[in-house]
Amino acid sequence: MAAEEFRVIDGLYYTKEHLWIKADGDDAVIGITDYGQHQLGDVVYVELPETGSQVEAGEKVASVESVKAAIDIFSPLTGKVLSVNEDLKEDPSLVNTDPYGEGWLYEIQMSDPSELEDLMTSDDYRAYITELEEEEE
């Protein structure tokens, strides 16, 4: 699949680990990108952080199992977990079917919103996945 076939939403932040971050004031919602979920394949289980827990940027906060692989999710931001997507317990495939909507993972209250500056913009992320696709060819 060509990189341009994957949805990348403008106005979000992205990581090289294929997470998207939607910031709103001091709060941010985090999920797996369209490209990331495609690489994983069909998601069968998601383990999420505890609501109210404090997480550090770079710390393991969740894990996702698919038919192809099991991966750890490392928080792109430091802060307090405000909520988790409880729907994923019943239907982990939401990560695949609606990665930027119903398939979100967790919401965090950022301790340091300046950490967003270390993340990629949508244009940066598009260029990054294009590079990855070219390397695979």
UniProtKB/TrEMBL annotation:
Cofactor binding note: Binds 1 lipoyl cofactor covalently.
Residues annotated as domain Lipoyl-binding: 27-109
Family annotation (Pfam families): GCV_H
Alphabetic keyword roster: Lipoyl
Source species: Persephonella atlantica
Protein name, as recorded: Glycine cleavage system H protein
Function summary: The glycine cleavage system catalyzes the degradation of glycine. The H protein shuttles the methylamine group of glycine from the P protein to the T protein.
Gene3D superfamilies on file: 2.40.50.100
Superkingdom: Bacteria
Subunit architecture: The glycine cleavage system is composed of four proteins: P, T, L and H.
CDD domains on file: GCS_H
Cofactor: (R)-lipoate
Record family assignment: Belongs to the GcvH family.
